[in-house]
Write a structure and sequence with these properties.
Elements: H1 22-48, H2 64-74, H3 100-124
C-alpha cells in the first residue's frame, strides 16, 4: 500500500543500475582492484607481523602524573603537632624587677599561647 503523501512515481521503483555503462564498469573494476590489494596486504601483514603477547610488548613509560602519584604514596604524611602544655600564669602580679618588661612580655606570650592551644584542641577533635 502506498502512502497518500508520496508521489505516485515512487511506487513503481527505479530503472536499476546500468551495468553496461563503461563508467560504472571502470568503477567496479577499481573497487575490485582495491579489495584485492587490501586482501594481499592483509596476508603479507599476517605473515610478517607477530601477534602481540606479554613477552614482546615493551613496557611503556608511565606518565608524569602516575609517577607523581606513586611518589606521593611513598612520602610520609605529617602527623598532628603535639599541643604544648598550658603555661601557668601567676594569678597575682609580682613585684617589679630589673627585667619587668621581659616578664610582662613572657606573661602576655603565655596567655596568647594558651589561647592558641585552646583553638587547636577545639578544631583537632
Amino acid at each position: 500500500m502506498r502512502d497518500k503523501r508520496a508521489p505516485i512515481w515512487n511506487c513503481f521503483g527505479g530503472l536499476g543500475p546500468d551495468l553496461d555503462n563503461p563508467e560504472s564498469q571502470m568503477k567496479r573494476v577499481s573497487r575490485l582492484r582495491v579489495a584485492d590489494f587490501s586482501n594481499q596486504l592483509r596476508e603479507i601483514n599476517k605473515q610478517t607481523c607477530k601477534p602481540l603477547t606479554a613477552a614482546n610488548i615493551e613496557k611503556v613509560q608511565p606518565s608524569a602524573r602516575k609517577i607523581a602519584i606513586e611518589y606521593s604514596r611513598s612520602v610520609p604524611k605529617p602527623t598532628n603537632r603535639a599541643i604544648r602544655p598550658l603555661i601557668k600564669i601567676p594569678a597575682t602580679p609580682q613585684a617589679p624587677s630589673l627585667f619587668g618588661t621581659l616578664e610582662r612580655l613572657l606573661i602576655e606570650h603565655g596567655k596568647l599561647d594558651n589561647k592558641v592551644a585552646e583553638i587547636r584542641r577545639k578544631y583537632d577533635t
